[in-house]
Amino acid sequence: MTQRGAAPDGRPPEIPPAAPMRTASLEQPSRRVHSVSGDGSDPLLRVNNIEVVYDHVILVLKGVSLEVPQGGIVALLGANGAGKSTTLKSISNLLRAERGDVTKGTIEFAGTRIEKMDPSRVVKSGVVQVMEGRRCFEHLTVEEDLLTGAHTRRDGRRAIKQDLERVYEYFPRLVARRSVKTGYISGGEQQMVAIGRALMVRPKLMLLDEPSMGLAPQLVQEIFGIITRMNREENVSILLAEQNVAQALKVAQYAYVLENGRIVLDGDAQTIQGNADIREFYLGLTEIGKKSYREVKYYRRRKRWLA
Ligand SMILES: Nc1ncnc2c1ncn2[C@@H]1O[C@H](COP(=O)(O)OP(=O)(O)O)[C@@H](O)[C@H]1O
Ligand SMILES: [Mg+2]
After folding, report:
1. CATH architecture of structural domain 41-274
2. How far is the CA of 264 from the centre of ligand 1 (A)?
3. What residue spans define the domains of the chain?
4. Ligand 1: does its nearest atom lie under 6 Å from the Cβ of 8?
5. Residue of the CA atom closest to atom 16 of ligand 1
6. What percent of the chain has pLDDT over 90?
7. Residue 54's Cα: distance from chain center in Å?
8. What is the Cα–Cα distance from 232 to 224, expressed in whole angstroms?
9. Among all ligands shown, which has an atom nearest to the Cα of 77?
10. 81 lines ligand 1 (CB under 6 A)
């Protein structure tokens, strides 16, 4: 089981290592994790207590467990550096390219262990990651870039062409840009290409790494709307890493909060949204209304799960 509530390294000395003052959602962690699927069926993805080390020495994930049910949208929330991208890359196995290793724990996708699988086989089995920073192939046109998503498929040109049209239906803005090199399109359009390319894989599970990053609020709404539609219409399950907690909780049914490489809280989206610490530290809200992080007095700036 994840060590929820454990103090991270570097805790200020003035905070005594008292027994954790548990929030309601911390009380039954194991039951909670298993309740994600709701109907008791096996989850599509099960990350079980993984530890990740970079360069053989830098311990970044310290026992992370999470589940994504079949057909669900699950949010992985946390500040910059919490370990969100590392978690996603552990699942897609793109970690090795960055000298990272899953040194403990297991990752199961649709009942099969994948933590040691080759990244290309992970993709073939139906897991695709949309990397942070909407990476595009700048020398390719929008359409060529989208088609790279289909290069492992063996179901023929016609099916691929149909899916391409489907991507343009989701992202009508890309139609007019189909012959433009992706280096010349806007950040929002690049994010659409990155998601569209992933859709061309016909995935069962999409790992989305901060799709809202650097985009104007209206565009964020648009992209999140498309994510919800994709989930419903293409039956793609989604694990969504986000710092934009408010937006992510609008589309996800369940959420995990990651801090310092540990899951410190998890629960259904409504519960997480109502959690006093989440409201204060991630949503900038308190009972008396909006408040900036700086205005919160230091003694209040101690999350219950670190107590
Ligand atoms: N390739 C790497 N080598 C060493 N440390 C890394 C590497 N990638 C990320 N880290 C470290 O791991 C921690 C988590 O990073 P990351 O997973 O990118 O967090 P997030 O996506 O939540 O911002 C950070 O402290 C970061 O500095
Ligand atoms: Mg990241």
Report:
1. 3-Layer(aba) Sandwich (3.40)
2. 18
3. 41-274
4. no
5. 83
6. 71
7. 20
8. 13
9. 1
10. yes
Q: Is the pLDDT of residue 291 over 70?
A: no
Give the C-alpha separation, 278 to 272, whole Å: 7
Summarize the confidence of residues 251-272 as an average pLDDT: 96
18 alpha carbon – ligand 2 mean position (Å): 31
Please determine, for residue 168, whether its predicted confidence score (pLDDT) is greater than 80: yes
Rounded CA gap, 115 and 126, in Å?
A: 14
Q: Quick: pLDDT tens for 93-121.
A: 999 999 999 999 999 999 999 999 999 99
HEC assignment per residue over the chain: CCCCCCCCCCCCCCCCCCCCCCCHHHCCHHHHHHCCCCCCCCCCEEEEEEEEEECCCEEEEEEEEEEECCCCEEEEECCCCCCHHHHHHHHHCCCHHHCEEEEEEEEEECCEECCCCCHHHHHHCCEEEECCCCCCCCCCEHHHHHHHCCCCCCCHHHHHHHHHHHHHHHCHHHCCCCCCEHHHCCHHHHHHHHHHHHHCCCCCEEEEECCCCCCCHHHHHHHHHHHHHHHHHCCCEEEEEECCHHHHHHHCCEEEEEECCEEEEEEEHHHHHHCHHHHHHHCCEECCEECCHHHCCHHHCCCHHHC
More confident residue, 290 or 104: 104
Tell me the pLDDT tens digit for each residue of 57-87: 999 999 999 999 999 999 999 999 999 999 9
pLDDT at 307: 59
Residue 294 in this model has a pLDDT that exceeds 60:
no
Give pTM, 2 decimals. 0.84
Q: Note the ligand closest to the C-alpha atom of 261.
A: 1
Q: Is the CB of 43 under 6 A from ligand 1?
A: no
Q: What residues have their beta carbon closer than 5 A to ion ligand 2?
A: 84-85, 132
